[in-house]
Amino acid sequence: MIEAINLRKEYGGFTAVDDLSFTVEPGQVLGFLGPNGAGKSTTMKMLTGFLAPTAGTARVNGHDIVSDSLAARRAMGYLPEGAPSYGEMTVGAFLDFVGRARGLDNPAHARGAAVERLSLGGVLHQSIETLSKGFKRRVGLAQAILHDPQVLILDEPTDGLDPNQKHEVRRLIEDMASDKIIVISTHILEEVEAVCNRVMVIAHGRLMADDTPAGMVARSRYHNAVTLVLESPKQAASVLSELPEVRKAEIRGAELTVFPAAEGLLPAVSRVIAERGWNVAELRLEAGRFDEVFREITHGEAD
Fold it and tell me: Could you read off the pLDDT of 182-209 as tens digits, one per residue?
């Protein structure tokens, strides 16, 4: 378990993280979201013992990150922002070094397993500084999982990866998620929806929301709205606005979205379409829009 207790980090008069408290249980994949400058990376660095908190603390599997930092770090794998490493080393030498530093009983076996999972066999003898950004990120992920940690802290794990590589990393996270704690700091909303079962949003270092991805989407004003694409959206909006199930209508180009005032909006809209014989190119029931919820929660706060 991760327990963050009133974590606070100040730089002079600037508060980067402000009294942040939360817990994360095994089996949870936590998406840690926030605009730029929200305090995401600072929180990750405090959780992993790389940055001392100004106040408060955190415990990883019962080990305090301040008073028992070494034991806490042993339980964690950490992919820092930018995936830093030793550029002059080859991939294989770097992973061997990390294995020895971790005190692994069989570092060669651990290296082989990590290399296979991250598809690094083709660059094993290549110096890290010559790798693409995507491969450097995969090397960073490999060192994070090398010792099969109980807790994984991943800061922007798919940054720089192409779509196929992103899919592979997300599948890796899903495979490991059942018995581990995984915390992913990201600004990519699609990534959170794809792999996370819990979402926390922070802004200016403060916790703004804590929910499941589905719960976050359900907060959207688009939740259970109906969107149509058709030739005469203004005329359709006038007609549909008369329905008791419709609260309001909005037009964006050829798209018309009607928002629910009551249950049964989609059947009511479908009935009108059939009765009027409208030529509708697209009709969809909206689950909600994560990006709109994110903007509302953070109030556009950034940097």
Answer: 999 988 888 898 899 999 999 999 999 9
pLDDT digits (tens, 9 = 90+) for 139-165: 999 999 999 999 999 988 887 788 888
Which residue spans of the chain are classified as CATH 3.30.70.100? 224-286
| Distance separating alpha carbons of residues 127 and 87, to the nearest angstrom | 6
Q: What is the mean pLDDT of residues 232-248?
A: 96
Pick the CATH number of 224-286 from 3.30.470.20, 3.10.450.40, 3.30.70.100, 3.30.420.10: 3.30.70.100
**Whole-number pLDDT of residue 300:** 52
DSSP string computed for the chain: -EEEEEEEEEETTEEEEEEEEEEE-TT-EEEEE--TTSSHHHHHHHHTTSS--SEEEEEETTEETTTTHHHHHHTEEEE-TT----TTSBHHHHHHHHHHHTT-S-HHHHHHHHHHHTT-GGGTTSBGGGS-HHHHHHHHHHHHHTT--SEEEEESTTTT--HHHHHHHHHHHHHHTTSSEEEEEES-HHHHHHH-SEEEEEETTEEEEEE-HHHHHHTSTTTT-EEEEES-HHHHHHHHTTSTTEEEEEEETTEEEEEESSS-HHHHHHHHHHHHT--EEEEEE----HHHHHHHHHTT---
**What is the pTM assigned to this prediction?**
0.86
Domain range 2-217, CATH class: alpha beta
Residue 188 region by backbone torsions, left for phi larger than 0, else alpha for psi between -120 and 50, else beta = beta
Residues 248 and 258: beta-carbon distance below 8 Å: yes
Residues of the chain with CATH 3.40.50.300: 2-217
Q: What is the rounded CA–CA span in Å between residue 303 and residue 301?
A: 7
